[in-house]
Amino acid sequence: MQKPNKDFLMDMLFGIAKGKSIIKSDIAKTLEEPFDTIQTVKRLFTHLEAFHEDDPYNNVAVNKKILDQGDFN
Q: Sign (positive/negative) of CA torsion 38, 40, 60, 54?
């Protein structure tokens, strides 16, 4: 998986876990990035649109394996 996709996945999982919400604006606020929340929402939305059902990385088991490996560099 490419680094931007790993970063996006980690941001989404962290935001959902910490914010206890699946609403993109809530996830963006939870990430506390140094720029406007709307820019973070746009970034998350753009990456989210890129994920497709036929994407081999759009699978819970594969994502869990990647997270368990801990290689996010």
A: positive
Tokens of 32: 């506390």
| Cα–Cα distance measured from residue 41 to residue 59, given in angstroms and rounded to the nearest whole number | 23
47-55 average pLDDT score: 68
Q: What is d(CA 17, CA 19) in angstroms, rounded to the nearest whole number? A: 6
Quote the CA–CA distance of 7 and 3 in Å, as a whole number: 6
Q: Which long-range contacts (CB under 8 A, 24 or more apart) does 62-71 make?
A: 63/9, 66/1, 66/6, 66/9, 67/13
Confidence of residue 14 (pLDDT cuts 50, 70, 90): very high
